[in-house]
Amino acid sequence: MDTIAQKMPATLPWTAWSALAPAAAARAIQTRVAALAPALRSAALTWLRPERELALDLAARRATDPLCGIPYFLKDLFDLGGIPTRAGSTFLDQVRGTPTADSAIVTRLRALGASCAGKTQLVEFASGLTGENPHFGDCPHPLFSDRLSGGSSSGSAALVAAGVVPLALGTDTGGSIRVPAAWCGLYGFRLTPAQEWISDAFPLAPTMDTAGWFTGTAEGMLATWQALVGPASQLANFRGCYLPLSALLPTADLVTDQACTAAAEKICPLADAATQAELLAAWRDAVDAYITIGMSEAYHVHRDWLAPYREHYDPLIWQRFSAAANYPAAQIQAAHATLARMRQAFAKYFLNHDFLILPAVPCAAPHKADCTPELRRNILTLTAPASLGGLPVLSLPVPLPFGLTAGLQIILPHAKSPVVPWLLKPE
Fold first, then answer.
1. pLDDT of amino acid 7
2. Can you give the pTM of this predicted structure?
């Protein structure tokens, strides 16, 4: 195994972080960041809170706070007062200025006892799924330096997977939590669009943008979910089914398909033929609809900058955003009609089911050469349904051979679903 974090200190359990003295926790983060390989550090971390400042912040928390003593990293789409927000770019702070106030989710986490330890890098303007960024370096997988972490929440996922912090915030528009969670072996949670904690983040496509987070353990995911979302109503005899990778992608990777199927079978049965056919029919145009809506909305966010700052954009991102200026109105209208049909199909499905399971990724974490338009489309085939559906998703890791991982998407009708604690509570 070609590891990039071989010299990292041992990963601490969730409860061990909250038990550390503030000074010890702040020191632990500095030590763990210093132990990162330079390529991972520069590609994952954009700002680190000074050790003494973090220790004082941790010390100010109340022992009764549910996330007391938990340090976390923040994806650099959310604001911290006095710290530039660059969104993986080289110029956003120049045109937007430095924020003077914290994002709502930062304020909420502070009230719950968590302390922000720094900000993380991402794919430029969150428009990508594999973790590539030409300005700060492609984000390597924390255990396999020749593979990528996934994105766009690449830095947040990589730093949790490397054991630097137990919790990190991300966003998910088309899979930006689900994909890196799967490839980095993490638990992830995606909320819903237009929710308060995404409304003040720098946008990619507001119709589908969501906030969310990563943890390295089920315990940490459950604690964070209970603090930020729960509690859930008490139900039993949950009804759900899963669609295998082979049903969604004709050229599915056999190893990933078998591993995800084995993991899903422990939770629920395979979807019956009628349910599978109905869902696949509703999702037929999902990828094209996602791209049309997402990139047309991104164009409107960036339209005043595309010409004067062209040389500052990643050329691929610039091309994606600029091309959307020429989308015909009929194409955009058709995409929104697809979105409406998909939401109707999900609403019908959830009349008789409590969750739906899909694979989160089509394969193991990719090498740079594997990051092709075909891979992007294959990923979106799996992730676009929940994105267009505007639905929350719990991501669970699935082990693959040789230490690699994939993941399951547990698509839920609402964020407070009691399915979450049912899946996360220890047996």
1. 59
2. 0.97
